[in-house]
Design goal:
Number of helices: 5
CATH architecture: Orthogonal Bundle
Number of strands: 3
CATH superfamily: Winged helix-like DNA-binding domain superfamily/Winged helix DNA-binding domain
Strand order of the largest sheet: 1-3-2
Distance between the termini: 27 Å
Radius of gyration: 15 Å
Number of domains: 1
Helix content: 55-70%
Shape: globular
CATH class: Mainly Alpha
CATH topology: Arc Repressor Mutant, subunit A
Length: 109
């Protein structure tokens, strides 16, 4: 299991990536994160909602009211054009970050 501390700075990239495929609601986003991580990371609902609200405040995500397949009202989130640009920038930043951390983790000191 990956600790929340280890992944904290990368939650935005996960959410933006999921929303780049299609609009989704919070429970479905959390389920997708758990599935894609292979069960190694489960996001807490409070963490997810805080991140989505932060992304919405920054203009990277917008929300709209909809109805789920079961007929329940849901708040859906979708990526904005700003969010697509933010995702691209965060992916570049991640590659650089991963490269630096790998140098230390693989003993290249």
């Amino acid at each position: 299991m990956i600790s929340a501390d280890a992944i904290r700075g990368y939650i935005d990239i996960m959410i933006l990536s999921i929303l780049s495929r299609e609009a989704s609601y919070a429970y479905e986003i959390a389920k997708t994160i758990a599935t894609i991580s292979g069960g190694h990371y489960t996001i807490k609902q409070t963490t997810l909602y805080s991140a989505v609200k932060r992304l919405e405040s920054s203009g990277d995500v917008s929300s709209f009211e909809g109805v789920s397949e079961t007929g329940k009202p849901r708040t859906y989130y979708q990526l904005t054009d700003s969010g697509r640009a933010a995702l691209a920038a965060k992916c570049i930043e991640w590659e650089s970050t991963k490269s630096v951390v790998d140098r230390f983790a693989k003993g290249a000191i």
